[in-house]
């Protein structure tokens, strides 16, 4: 299991909240143990049937939440193969096991193809050319008792939180340059994600240059209560403490490789 330490201090500060008590705090994480493995892969290869879910999803209902904490956080490095334009994956904090007639619950973000938004709630995706991007999303999906009505099958994405376009591999470096041999390169990124009991989500993404990490997408944040939810509001459960990392069942022959995983609470 990945144990929290001070390598990634919690640095999100002064993000506007509903009041000053609800802003993210500039603290290091409380001591706890992250249940996620230190590395894993989400995969859908050529041998995976088209109607079968991708492999490698991670789901934990108990994340060892310490008392008196209200912000859940997640950090991991990643690189991809053939992922751009294929599908997208979700990083859902405050996840809880589906209740009666409920399928998904939580707030966090997505990485991948989100060009059309795929939802009437909140605002649209990140644009028609956005084939590997990032965006805040929240999920409060309810299936009514009359299953013919899907009106409450709802989630929300927020275009004002879209990040910079990303790319996957393999990318050929030095192609056509006689003095240096070609080699295959996989662009590498790092996600930092925070969500709190005021229903704010914020994230940023780093990119590895080959020698150091630089900001690829600066902090993006929003109150997910601001979406155009059915009925005006949703009853998010602040006592939920789970985490779900999974990919949408789409595309084929792609991989999303995750390592240096850490998560926790403050």
Please, could you describe this protein's structure?
The protein is mainly beta and 266 residues long. It contains no helices and 15 strands. The chain starts with 39 loop residues before the first strand and ends with a strand. The protein is globular, with a radius of gyration of 19 Å. It has one domain: Jelly Rolls.
How are the SSEs placed, and which strands pair?
Elements: E1 40-44, E2 58-60, E3 71-81, E4 88-95, E5 102-112, E6 121-122, E7 133-142, E8 153-157, E9 171-173, E10 183-185, E11 189-196, E12 200-208, E13 213-223, E14 242-247, E15 254-265
Question: What's a concise summary of this model?
Answer:
By secondary structure, this protein is mainly β. Helix content is 0%, strand content 40%.
Round the mean pLDDT to the nearest integer and report it: 79
What CATH architecture would you give?
Sandwich
Give the number of DSSP strands: 15
Approximately how much helix is present in the residues? under 10%
Task: Decide which structural class fits the backbone.
Answer: mainly beta
Evaluate the radius of gyration: 19 Å
As for the CATH topology, it is Jelly Rolls
Percentage beta strand: 35-45%
* Poorly predicted runs: 1-29, 118-122
Strand order of the largest sheet: 2-14-4-5-7-8-6
Which key terms come to mind for this protein?
globular, mainly beta, six-stranded antiparallel sheet, disordered N terminus, 266 residues, 0% helix, Jelly Rolls
């Amino acid at each position: 299991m990945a144990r929290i330490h001070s390598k990634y201090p919690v640095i999100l500060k002064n993000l506007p909240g509903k009041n000053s008590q609800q802003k993210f705090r500039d603290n290091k994480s409380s001591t706890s143990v992250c249940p996620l493995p230190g590395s894993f892969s989400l995969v859908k290869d050529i041998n995976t049937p088209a109607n079968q879910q991708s492999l490698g999803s991670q789901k934990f209902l108990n994340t060892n939440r310490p008392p008196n904490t209200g912000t859940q956080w997640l950090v991991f490095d990643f690189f991809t193969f053939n992922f751009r334009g294929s599908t997208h994956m979700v990083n859902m904090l405050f996840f809880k096991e589906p209740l009666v007639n409920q399928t998904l619950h939580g707030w966090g973000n997505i990485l991948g193809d989100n060009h059309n938004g795929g939802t009437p709630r909140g605002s649209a995706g990140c644009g028609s050319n956005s084939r590997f991007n990032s965006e805040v999303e929240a999920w409060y999906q309810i299936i009514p008792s009359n299953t013919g009505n899907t009106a409450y099958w709802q989630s929300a994405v927020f275009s004002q939180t879209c990040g910079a376009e990303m790319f996957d591999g393999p990318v050929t470096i030095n192609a056509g340059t006689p003095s240096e041999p070609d080699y295959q390169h996989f662009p590498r990124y790092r996600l930092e994600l925070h969500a709190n009991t005021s229903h704010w989500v914020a994230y940023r993404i780093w990119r590895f240059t080959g020698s150091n990490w630089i900001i690829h997408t600066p902090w993006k944040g929003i109150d997910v209560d601001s979406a155009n939810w059915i009925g005006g509001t949703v009853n998010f459960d602040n006592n939920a403490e789970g985490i779900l990392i999974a990919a949408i069942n789409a595309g084929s022959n792609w991989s999303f490789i995750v390592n240096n995983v850490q998560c926790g609470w403050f």
